[in-house]
Amino acid sequence: MRNISRNDSGVYLLQVINGRISSRTFSVSVYAPVSTPVIRNQRGNRSVSSTEQCFLLCTVENGEDVKLSWYRGNERLNITNNTDLNVPLNLPLQIQLHDINTNTYTCVSANPVSSKTASLNIAQLCDHNSGQTDRSRSLLPVLISAAGFVLLIISVSVWLWLKKKKQPVPEKPELTYADVNITAHSAESVKEEENSRVTHGEAESDSVVYAAVKKSR
Predict the structure, then answer these.
(1) For 134-157, how does the pLDDT look when each residue is reduced to its tens digit (9 = 90+)?
(2) Beta-carbon contacts of residue 137 (< 8 Å; ≥ 6 apart)
(3) From CA 190, how far away is CA 187, in angstroms rounded?
(4) Domain ranges within the chain, ordered by starting residue
(5) Does 38-128 carry CATH code 2.60.40.10?
(6) 8, 23, 118, 145: which could form a disulfide with 4 (CB 3.0–4.6 Å)?
(7) Is the separation of the CB atoms in 11 and 30 below 8 Å?
(8) Which residues form the Ig-like domain (predicted)?
(9) Rounded to an integer, what distance in angstroms lies between the CA atom of residue 47 and that of residue 202?
(10) Is 129 helix (H, G, I), strand (E, B) or coil?
């Protein structure tokens, strides 16, 4: 039978004519190839601390007689199927931390005529951290904000310093000093000086008068 589709499934009658007629019935089931399963972290968080497990979920498109299985090496851990072909098949798996680096895990979708396998990449889906890394990641935004604030303060301080440095400094006025001599005169010396000028004046007057009188004789 060639070029068949899923609509060709059913019960067929075969007649063999060889001098006499014989018949035989058989059932034909046509299956579509299965889809490749997809593995993801069930909790949406790749990182796991030292006290947690890795929760995985394998998903595949459902189909006629499709079964979904988890394998550890050659050992099948669990299997599922669903007769409701409108609902995807999901199969969870929890991995212990000591198994992360010691075993190989695969998810297999299969029907009677085909199968597809997806291998688990533990490094991508189940990063193992000590818990310290998670705290460091949570503090990273705070540290970045603090560093930005410090840089802002430094930038403002430098700007103010440069602005102050560029302002002209007013020149100080030059001061001229002059020597002042102060001569103190006592009252007695002033009086003697006045008497001297008066006496001198009277003497001059007397001599003038005397000279005039002397000439008249």
Answers:
(1) 444 555 666 787 777 788 888 878
(2) none
(3) 5
(4) 38-128
(5) yes
(6) 8
(7) no
(8) 37-123
(9) 129
(10) coil
Residue identified by tokens 């000086």 is: 193
Residue 118 sits at the vertex; the CA angle it makes with 73 and 47, to the nearest 5 degrees, is 85
At a CB cut-off of 8 Å and minimum separation 6, what does 74 contact?
A: none
What is the total residue count of the chain? 217
Q: Are the C-beta atoms of residues 56 and 39 closer than 8 Å to each other?
A: yes
- Give CA–CA dist 23/47, Å, rounded: 64
pLDDT tens track for 2-50: 788 878 889 989 888 887 888 889 888 888 899 999 999 887 655 555 4
Q: What stretches of 29-142 adopt beta strand conformation (E)?
A: 38-41, 47-48, 54-60, 67-72, 75-80, 89-95, 105-111, 114-119, 127-128
> Alpha-carbon distance 73 to 179, whole Å?
113
